[in-house]
Specification:
This protein is an alpha+beta fold. It has five helices and twelve strands. The strands form two sheets. Strands 1, 2, 3, 4, 9, 10, 11 and 12 form an eight-stranded antiparallel beta sheet that branches. The longest helix is centred in the C-terminal third of the chain and has 23 residues.
Length: about 280
Protein backbone atom coordinates (compact mmCIF):
# COMPACT_ATOMS: atom_id res chain seq x y z
CA UNK A 1 0.00 0.00 0.00
CA UNK A 2 1.30 3.42 -0.89
CA UNK A 3 2.48 5.67 1.91
CA UNK A 4 -0.17 8.34 1.37
CA UNK A 5 -2.85 5.69 1.72
CA UNK A 6 -1.23 3.99 4.71
CA UNK A 7 -0.68 7.10 6.82
CA UNK A 8 -4.38 7.90 7.41
CA UNK A 9 -4.99 4.29 8.46
CA UNK A 10 -2.04 4.34 10.87
CA UNK A 11 -3.18 7.67 12.27
CA UNK A 12 -6.71 6.38 12.74
CA UNK A 13 -5.53 3.23 14.54
CA UNK A 14 -3.17 5.24 16.74
CA UNK A 15 -5.95 7.68 17.61
CA UNK A 16 -8.34 4.85 18.48
CA UNK A 17 -5.76 3.16 20.69
CA UNK A 18 -4.94 6.45 22.41
CA UNK A 19 -8.60 7.06 23.17
CA UNK A 20 -9.09 3.54 24.53
CA UNK A 21 -5.99 3.79 26.74
CA UNK A 22 -6.93 7.26 27.99
CA UNK A 23 -10.52 6.27 28.73
CA UNK A 24 -10.06 2.85 30.32
CA UNK A 25 -6.43 2.38 31.37
CA UNK A 26 -4.17 5.29 32.33
CA UNK A 27 -4.21 9.02 31.85
CA UNK A 28 -1.66 11.74 32.49
CA UNK A 29 -2.72 14.69 34.64
CA UNK A 30 -1.08 18.08 35.00
CA UNK A 31 -1.07 19.37 38.58
CA UNK A 32 -1.49 23.17 38.84
CA UNK A 33 -2.11 23.56 42.57
CA UNK A 34 0.06 23.50 45.70
CA UNK A 35 -2.28 21.38 47.83
CA UNK A 36 -0.13 18.21 47.58
CA UNK A 37 3.33 19.75 48.05
CA UNK A 38 5.99 18.43 48.34
CA UNK A 39 4.73 15.02 47.28
CA UNK A 40 3.48 16.59 44.06
CA UNK A 41 4.68 20.03 43.04
CA UNK A 42 2.80 22.52 40.83
CA UNK A 43 3.61 21.67 37.23
CA UNK A 44 4.24 17.97 37.90
CA UNK A 45 2.63 15.33 35.71
CA UNK A 46 1.27 12.14 37.21
CA UNK A 47 -0.20 8.97 35.74
CA UNK A 48 -3.60 7.95 37.03
CA UNK A 49 -4.80 4.35 36.90
CA UNK A 50 -8.30 4.52 35.43
CA UNK A 51 -8.62 0.77 34.89
CA UNK A 52 -9.27 -0.13 38.51
CA UNK A 53 -12.66 1.62 38.88
CA UNK A 54 -13.98 -0.60 36.10
CA UNK A 55 -13.16 -3.71 38.15
CA UNK A 56 -14.71 -2.73 41.45
CA UNK A 57 -11.71 -0.86 42.88
CA UNK A 58 -12.39 1.10 46.02
CA UNK A 59 -10.05 3.82 47.33
CA UNK A 60 -7.73 2.72 50.11
CA UNK A 61 -6.24 4.70 52.97
CA UNK A 62 -3.08 6.53 51.94
CA UNK A 63 -3.70 6.43 48.19
CA UNK A 64 -3.55 9.64 46.19
CA UNK A 65 -6.74 9.96 44.15
CA UNK A 66 -8.03 12.22 41.40
CA UNK A 67 -11.72 13.06 41.56
CA UNK A 68 -14.28 15.42 40.10
CA UNK A 69 -15.35 18.44 42.12
CA UNK A 70 -18.10 17.10 44.42
CA UNK A 71 -19.70 20.53 44.24
CA UNK A 72 -18.45 23.88 45.49
CA UNK A 73 -14.90 22.78 46.32
CA UNK A 74 -13.38 24.92 43.57
CA UNK A 75 -13.55 28.70 43.55
CA UNK A 76 -14.68 29.74 40.03
CA UNK A 77 -12.58 32.90 40.27
CA UNK A 78 -9.42 30.83 40.61
CA UNK A 79 -10.04 28.67 37.52
CA UNK A 80 -7.65 29.72 34.77
CA UNK A 81 -9.38 30.67 31.53
CA UNK A 82 -7.67 30.40 28.14
CA UNK A 83 -8.92 32.21 25.07
CA UNK A 84 -11.24 30.27 22.79
CA UNK A 85 -8.54 29.16 20.33
CA UNK A 86 -5.95 28.04 22.90
CA UNK A 87 -8.63 26.40 25.01
CA UNK A 88 -9.97 24.51 22.00
CA UNK A 89 -6.52 23.26 20.97
CA UNK A 90 -5.72 22.12 24.53
CA UNK A 91 -9.05 20.37 24.82
CA UNK A 92 -8.56 18.44 21.56
CA UNK A 93 -4.98 17.49 22.40
CA UNK A 94 -5.98 16.36 25.89
CA UNK A 95 -8.93 14.43 24.47
CA UNK A 96 -6.65 12.34 22.24
CA UNK A 97 -4.02 11.95 24.94
CA UNK A 98 -1.33 14.17 23.37
CA UNK A 99 -1.46 16.53 26.35
CA UNK A 100 -1.94 15.65 30.02
CA UNK A 101 -5.35 16.38 31.44
CA UNK A 102 -5.32 19.82 33.04
CA UNK A 103 -9.01 20.03 33.82
CA UNK A 104 -9.46 22.57 36.59
CA UNK A 105 -12.66 20.77 37.59
CA UNK A 106 -10.64 17.82 38.94
CA UNK A 107 -8.89 17.66 42.30
CA UNK A 108 -6.12 15.51 43.74
CA UNK A 109 -5.85 14.58 47.43
CA UNK A 110 -4.78 11.75 49.73
CA UNK A 111 -7.37 9.34 51.12
CA UNK A 112 -7.31 9.33 54.93
CA UNK A 113 -10.62 7.69 55.81
CA UNK A 114 -12.65 4.98 54.08
CA UNK A 115 -16.23 3.85 54.82
CA UNK A 116 -16.76 3.14 58.51
CA UNK A 117 -13.62 4.97 59.66
CA UNK A 118 -13.82 7.66 62.34
CA UNK A 119 -11.47 10.56 61.53
CA UNK A 120 -10.55 13.28 64.02
CA UNK A 121 -7.96 15.91 64.91
CA UNK A 122 -7.99 17.97 68.11
CA UNK A 123 -6.16 20.91 66.60
CA UNK A 124 -2.68 22.44 66.40
CA UNK A 125 0.04 20.11 67.63
CA UNK A 126 -2.27 17.09 67.63
CA UNK A 127 -2.16 14.22 65.11
CA UNK A 128 -4.95 13.15 62.82
CA UNK A 129 -6.41 9.92 64.16
CA UNK A 130 -8.24 7.18 62.29
CA UNK A 131 -10.31 4.91 64.51
CA UNK A 132 -8.35 6.21 67.47
CA UNK A 133 -4.94 5.42 65.93
CA UNK A 134 -2.71 8.49 65.39
CA UNK A 135 -1.15 8.83 61.95
CA UNK A 136 2.59 9.43 61.63
CA UNK A 137 2.61 11.90 58.74
CA UNK A 138 6.17 13.22 58.97
CA UNK A 139 7.24 11.53 55.75
CA UNK A 140 4.82 13.38 53.48
CA UNK A 141 3.46 16.52 55.17
CA UNK A 142 4.62 19.82 53.68
CA UNK A 143 7.77 21.45 55.06
CA UNK A 144 8.35 25.18 54.62
CA UNK A 145 11.61 26.80 53.52
CA UNK A 146 12.55 26.98 57.21
CA UNK A 147 12.08 23.23 57.56
CA UNK A 148 8.97 23.65 59.70
CA UNK A 149 6.50 20.82 59.26
CA UNK A 150 2.86 21.67 58.59
CA UNK A 151 0.46 20.91 61.42
CA UNK A 152 -1.75 17.91 60.64
CA UNK A 153 -4.61 20.40 60.96
CA UNK A 154 -4.63 24.04 62.00
CA UNK A 155 -8.19 23.71 63.31
CA UNK A 156 -9.85 20.86 65.18
CA UNK A 157 -12.39 18.69 63.40
CA UNK A 158 -14.41 15.57 63.98
CA UNK A 159 -14.95 12.99 65.04
CA UNK A 160 -16.61 12.29 61.70
CA UNK A 161 -17.70 8.84 60.55
CA UNK A 162 -17.06 8.18 56.87
CA UNK A 163 -20.29 7.16 55.15
CA UNK A 164 -20.64 4.14 52.82
CA UNK A 165 -19.26 4.63 49.30
CA UNK A 166 -17.40 7.81 50.26
CA UNK A 167 -13.89 8.79 51.41
CA UNK A 168 -12.39 11.50 53.60
CA UNK A 169 -9.48 13.25 51.86
CA UNK A 170 -6.71 15.63 52.92
CA UNK A 171 -3.98 17.44 51.02
CA UNK A 172 -0.34 16.94 52.03
CA UNK A 173 0.07 20.74 52.18
CA UNK A 174 -2.46 21.16 54.99
CA UNK A 175 -2.10 24.92 55.31
CA UNK A 176 -2.96 25.38 51.62
CA UNK A 177 -5.50 22.66 50.88
CA UNK A 178 -9.26 23.00 50.50
CA UNK A 179 -9.96 19.40 51.45
CA UNK A 180 -12.61 17.54 53.46
CA UNK A 181 -11.96 19.64 56.57
CA UNK A 182 -13.07 22.81 54.79
CA UNK A 183 -16.39 21.33 53.68
CA UNK A 184 -17.54 19.56 56.83
CA UNK A 185 -20.51 21.91 57.25
CA UNK A 186 -21.88 21.18 53.77
CA UNK A 187 -24.51 18.57 53.03
CA UNK A 188 -21.78 16.19 51.83
CA UNK A 189 -19.96 16.53 55.20
CA UNK A 190 -16.77 16.96 53.23
CA UNK A 191 -16.90 13.39 51.93
CA UNK A 192 -16.14 12.46 48.32
CA UNK A 193 -18.40 9.80 46.75
CA UNK A 194 -16.93 6.89 44.84
CA UNK A 195 -18.88 8.01 41.77
CA UNK A 196 -16.67 11.10 41.46
CA UNK A 197 -13.44 9.09 41.46
CA UNK A 198 -11.32 9.17 38.30
CA UNK A 199 -8.71 6.76 39.63
CA UNK A 200 -5.60 6.78 41.79
CA UNK A 201 -2.27 8.40 40.94
CA UNK A 202 0.50 5.82 41.08
CA UNK A 203 3.58 7.46 39.54
CA UNK A 204 5.03 10.92 38.92
CA UNK A 205 6.39 11.07 35.37
CA UNK A 206 7.48 14.71 35.05
CA UNK A 207 9.87 16.38 35.56
CA UNK A 208 12.41 13.68 34.74
CA UNK A 209 14.47 14.52 37.81
CA UNK A 210 11.51 13.69 40.05
CA UNK A 211 10.22 10.48 38.46
CA UNK A 212 9.09 8.17 41.25
CA UNK A 213 6.23 6.02 42.42
CA UNK A 214 3.43 7.38 44.60
CA UNK A 215 3.09 4.58 47.10
CA UNK A 216 1.06 4.27 50.30
CA UNK A 217 2.81 5.43 53.50
CA UNK A 218 3.26 2.67 56.04
CA UNK A 219 1.35 4.55 58.74
CA UNK A 220 -1.93 3.73 56.97
CA UNK A 221 -1.46 0.02 57.64
CA UNK A 222 -1.76 0.50 61.40
CA UNK A 223 -4.72 -1.08 63.18
CA UNK A 224 -6.05 -0.68 66.66
CA UNK A 225 -6.85 -3.82 68.76
CA UNK A 226 -10.55 -3.64 67.89
CA UNK A 227 -9.78 -3.59 64.16
CA UNK A 228 -7.34 -6.47 64.51
CA UNK A 229 -9.99 -8.54 66.28
CA UNK A 230 -12.53 -7.63 63.64
CA UNK A 231 -10.13 -8.64 60.87
CA UNK A 232 -9.52 -11.98 62.57
CA UNK A 233 -13.25 -12.53 62.91
CA UNK A 234 -13.76 -12.04 59.18
CA UNK A 235 -11.33 -14.82 58.23
CA UNK A 236 -13.28 -17.62 56.48
CA UNK A 237 -14.14 -20.49 58.85
CA UNK A 238 -12.46 -23.02 56.55
CA UNK A 239 -9.17 -21.12 56.89
CA UNK A 240 -9.48 -21.19 60.67
CA UNK A 241 -10.22 -24.91 60.42
CA UNK A 242 -7.02 -25.60 58.48
CA UNK A 243 -5.02 -23.36 60.82
CA UNK A 244 -6.14 -25.34 63.86
CA UNK A 245 -6.17 -28.77 62.20
CA UNK A 246 -2.50 -28.81 61.15
CA UNK A 247 -0.94 -28.48 64.65
CA UNK A 248 -3.58 -30.80 66.15
CA UNK A 249 -2.84 -33.46 63.56
CA UNK A 250 0.92 -33.13 64.04
CA UNK A 251 0.52 -33.42 67.81
CA UNK A 252 -1.61 -36.53 67.45
CA UNK A 253 0.98 -38.20 65.23
CA UNK A 254 3.78 -37.43 67.71
CA UNK A 255 1.76 -38.91 70.56
CA UNK A 256 1.02 -42.00 68.50
CA UNK A 257 4.70 -42.53 67.74
CA UNK A 258 5.64 -42.05 71.37
CA UNK A 259 2.89 -44.42 72.52
CA UNK A 260 4.06 -47.22 70.17
CA UNK A 261 7.14 -49.41 70.40
CA UNK A 262 9.74 -47.51 72.38
CA UNK A 263 12.52 -50.01 71.43
CA UNK A 264 13.36 -51.20 67.92
CA UNK A 265 12.30 -54.70 66.86
CA UNK A 266 15.12 -57.11 67.88
CA UNK A 267 14.62 -59.32 64.83
CA UNK A 268 14.93 -56.35 62.54
CA UNK A 269 18.14 -55.21 64.22
CA UNK A 270 19.60 -58.72 63.96
CA UNK A 271 18.81 -59.04 60.28
CA UNK A 272 20.37 -55.67 59.43
CA UNK A 273 23.48 -56.40 61.51
CA UNK A 274 24.06 -59.80 59.92
CA UNK A 275 23.53 -58.39 56.47
CA UNK A 276 26.18 -55.71 57.02
CA UNK A 277 28.65 -58.25 58.46
CA UNK A 278 27.96 -60.65 55.60
CA UNK A 279 27.91 -63.68 57.90
CA UNK A 280 24.51 -64.97 56.97
CA UNK A 281 21.62 -64.09 54.82
CA UNK A 282 19.15 -61.85 56.61
CA UNK A 283 16.35 -63.72 58.18
CA UNK A 284 13.05 -63.51 56.37
Amino acid sequence: MRLWKELPILFGVALLLALVIKTFFVQAYFIPSESMQHTIEPGDRVLVNKLTPWFGWTPQRGQIVVFKDPGGWLDPSEIKKDNAFVGGVKKVFSWVGLLPEGNEQDLIKRVVGVPGDVVQCKGVGQPVTVNGVPLDEHSYLYRGVDGQLDDPSQTPFGPITVLPHTVFVLGDHRSDSGDSRVHLQESSQGLVPYSDMQGHAFVRIWPLTRISGLGTPSTFSLKNPAQAAQSAATVPPLMWGFTLAVPLRAGAQRRRRRGGALLPDPAGVTNRLRGRLGTERPLG
